[in-house]
Specification:
4 strands, two-stranded antiparallel sheet, 335 residues, 13 helices, mainly alpha, 2% strand
């Protein structure tokens, strides 16, 4: 009996060790890929390594980086949030209505937008946990269409511009030559790192993604965790919308159209698994950088937008295929 327990314990330790090594090696591989991509683009386009372009890459990546935080949480639980791009777009329009059309205080307008993002995210969670829809794909796909439709309806599909300086601050201002949005990304990722690694709720999120039924049997309120995850995803999408509004000093109903797919690609490239329970928030920023650098490089090289779209789709397929392969290798090695 004791031999059996010892064998099971050793098997568990070996699985954890192999899983950790797999994640570490994968992270190094992604970093190497990013490094090689930067070298290739810098050779093909001398403008890539200029200070102005690098700061532009940082500003471009900030929006996707913030959106990807919510997407990371959703994927970590074994789900997905297809609505982040539409929630971002609706957030920009709501900001325009309150801050410009109605003349509401910029700070109150920001608070309203963040609360609205959280509410839409909570609805995503409730559709999953209360209506028991079969998968977050369904609930968030529905929210994606509804939020985009609302963004078009409430403004008559007309862009809004002329925002006050406090609203432009996050997206347009710099400290020296460094965009303020970059500091915001650092704060968001540091807070999320401590939340996921230093709190019981963060550990519960990993547990739910690893084995939902086992988590429920162990006493974890799975519904509450999922509601929280999708609420946070809505808030981060709205926050990203605020950064985008500040960056372009305008809101438009089709804002954020590609951000859901970019966020999925960044999270999966960063090592999170569609199977749930696997991933590190710090690695997500590597995926964001790879996606942003690739987009920037294609623009610098004047690559046709249609091919750029194709490239992003190919990146997602390759990343998911690598994730499936990595999971199989880890399981086989642990046997």
């Amino acid at each position: 009996m004791s031999m059996g327990k010892k064998s099971a314990s050793e098997s568990t330790r070996n699985h954890i060790m192999i899983k950790g090594m797999s994640e570490h090696l994968y992270s190094l591989g992604v970093l190497l890929s990013l490094f090689i991509l930067c070298i290739v683009i810098s050779i093909l386009s001398p403008r890539f390594l200029t200070l102005d372009n690098l700061m532009n890459v940082a500003a471009q990546g900030a929006v996707n980086a913030i959106v990807s935080v919510g997407m990371f949480l959703a994927i970590l639980t074994g789900g997905i949030d297809l609505s982040v791009g539409s929630v971002l777009g609706l957030s920009t329009m709501v900001m325009g209505i309150f801050a410009v059309k109605l003349g509401v205080s910029p700070y109150l307008s920001i608070l309203i937008v963040l609360l609205m993002g959280g509410l839409l995210g909570l609805i995503n969670g409730l559709l999953l946990t209360k209506l028991h829809l079969p998968h977050p794909f369904i609930s968030t796909l529905g929210m994606k269409q509804m939020a985009r439709g609302l963004a078009l309806v409430v403004t008559g599909a007309v862009p809004i511009s002329g925002f006050a300086k406090p609203i432009q601050f996050l997206g347009s201002y710099t400290v020296g030559c460094v965009p303020v949005s970059l500091f915001l990304v650092m704060v968001v990722y540091i807070l999320m790192y401590f939340f996921l690694t230093r709190t019981a709720t963060g550990r519960y999120i990993y547990a739910v993604g690893g084995n939902t039924e086992a988590s429920r049997l162990s006493g974890i309120n799975v519904s509450a965790i999922l509601n929280l995850v999708y609420t946070i995803s809505g808030i981060t999408a709205a926050l990203a919308g605020l950064v985008l509004v500040g960056r372009v000093n305008a809101s438009y109903p089709l804002a954020g159209t590609d951000y859901d797919s970019d966020a999925i690609a960044a999270v999966i490239i960063g090592g999170a698994s569609f199977f749930g329970g696997v991933g590190k928030i710090g690695n997500t920023i590597i995926g964001v950088l790879l996606i942003t650098v690739l987009r920037n490089g294609l623009n610098l090289l004047n690559v046709d937008s249609a091919f750029q779209t194709f490239s992003m789709g190919a990146v997602i397929v390759i990343a998911v295929a690598i994730d499936v392969w990595r999971q199989k290798v880890t399981k086989n090695a642990a046997k």
